[in-house]
């Protein structure tokens, strides 16, 4: 078997318009456990590729995606707009909420297409109601990878669980209100995703719960509301109660959970520590307590981390789509620390669509005209 290796590009959204000759079969491989996002341009459709085994080669044109697999390889392709995943093998497209996916075990050619699969997430029948997921009854930390999931969903008959947002490694199973679960290896934030299927055949939207795996510490929020010092100290000032769904730009938390989130562009973004909270200029008095149901209306977005790395690098170049080099890598790293660049995407040193989107988000947050390029104003903001 040819060695499955990744040269230069891992888990990054790629634009074939800016660099049409960038991707070649021998230059891009998908390693075991990695994820990569590919955008085809005719028509413009983005696919997310995940593989537990890795594959040998990947080739892209403006309208096709060719995946070369060896015996024993497997790859799951998902599409977040709910489009049919057209392929030459005739493998069917299934739905998880509004997301479509197809799993392949042989070499395949995927053709870009924008035909809706027709995923049903609501309508007549018996829809899912009051859905939720908790890890260790809502604890914020655990020192053991072995945890218990608490699962609630009215009218549910099946569920699907995964540590991957696209459920690439999971299968539907009978609904249960509790399930033993093993977190992924390595310390830090761990997230578990769930989707429910109702007795009427309708799916909920995917939702998730998060817990931090620590070394020898099992610190859950205390009854008095005190929290670990590494978290934003939301109990320093009176916290407002709020009913209903939080609005854009709101700072929110659950009653007995120290984590504080920013509601931004339809996502909830965890503010990882007090330094990050302060750097962003947030006010403790603006934090409101919301219900778990209200918070679960939002998908998880990239974390907001403190920008410690920013002081270590001074930007001097004009950067735009197609730029490459160490300055682009530094830009990606700093934008990731600030929460604008996706956490799961590796810094590649290539300025593609993912980097441009992150720059635009940074510019909007800093009151800079969002042109998607690093010019004098953006450079000055990054160098502060």
Automatic annotation (TrEMBL):
Pfam families: PG_binding_1 (PF01471). Keywords: Signal. This is Peptidoglycan binding-like domain-containing protein. Residues 227-240 have a biased composition (Polar residues). Residues 325-382 form the Peptidoglycan binding-like domain. The keyword Chaperone does not apply. Residues 220-240 are annotated as: Disordered. Residues 1-25 form the signal peptide.
């Amino acid at each position: 078997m040819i060695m499955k290796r990744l040269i230069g590009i891992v888990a990054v959204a790629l634009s074939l318009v800016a660099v049409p000759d960038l991707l070649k079969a021998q230059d891009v491989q998908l390693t075991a456990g990695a994820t990569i996002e590919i955008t085809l341009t005719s028509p413009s459709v983005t696919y997310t590729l995940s593989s537990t085994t890795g594959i040998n080669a990947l080739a892209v044109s403006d309208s096709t995606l060719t995946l070369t697999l060896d015996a024993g390889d497997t790859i799951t392709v998902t599409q977040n707009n709910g489009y049919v995943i057209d392929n030459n093998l005739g493998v069917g497209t299934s739905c998880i909420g509004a997301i479509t996916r197809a799993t392949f075990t042989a070499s395949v050619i995927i053709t870009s297409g924008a035909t809706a699969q027709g995923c049903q997430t609501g309508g007549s029948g018996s829809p899912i109601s009051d859905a939720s997921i908790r890890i260790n009854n809502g604890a914020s930390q655990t020192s053991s990878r072995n945890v218990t999931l608490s699962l609630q969903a009215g009218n549910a008959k099946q569920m699907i669980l995964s540590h991957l947002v696209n459920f690439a490694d999971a299968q539907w199973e009978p609904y249960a209100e509790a399930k033993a679960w093993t977190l992924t290896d390595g310390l830090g934030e761990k997230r578990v995703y769930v989707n429910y299927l109702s007795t009427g055949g309708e799916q909920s939207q995917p939702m998730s719960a998060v817990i931090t795996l620590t070394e020898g510490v099992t610190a859950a929020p205390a009854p008095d509301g005190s929290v670990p010092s590494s978290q934003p100290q939301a109990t320093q000032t009176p916290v407002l109660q709020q009913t209903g769904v939080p609005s854009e730009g709101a700072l929110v938390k659950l009653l007995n959970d120290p984590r504080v989130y920013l509601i931004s562009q339809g996502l909830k973004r965890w503010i990882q520590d007090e330094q990050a909270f302060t750097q962003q200029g947030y006010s403790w008095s603006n934090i409101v307590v919301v219900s778990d149901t209200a918070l679960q209306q939002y998908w998880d977005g990239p974390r907001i981390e403190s920008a410690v790395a920013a002081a270590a690098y001074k930007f001097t170049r004009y950067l735009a789509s197609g730029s490459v080099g160490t300055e682009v890598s530094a830009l990606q790293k700093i934008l990731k620390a600030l929460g604008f660049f996706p956490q799961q995407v590796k810094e590649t040193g290539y300025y593609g669509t993912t980097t441009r989107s992150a720059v635009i988000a940074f510019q909007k947050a800093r009151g800079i005209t969002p042109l998607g390029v690093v010019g004098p104003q953006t450079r000055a903001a990054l160098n502060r």
